[in-house]
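Help needed: design a sequence for this.
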């Protein structure tokens, strides 16, 4: 496994973590709004 391939895997994992955190934030925000609105 060469260094460029390793960097590509790391970058893909970073983008995946960032997207997952963004989705989690949106879901939590929507959930709190649904809880706050009667």
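Sure. Designed sequence:
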């Amino acid at each position: 496994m060469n260094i460029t391939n390793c960097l590509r895997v790391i970058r893909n994992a970073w983008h995946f973590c960032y997207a997952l955190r963004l989705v989690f934030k949106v879901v939590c925000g929507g959930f709190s709004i649904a809880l706050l609105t009667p």
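The chain has one domain: 9-38.
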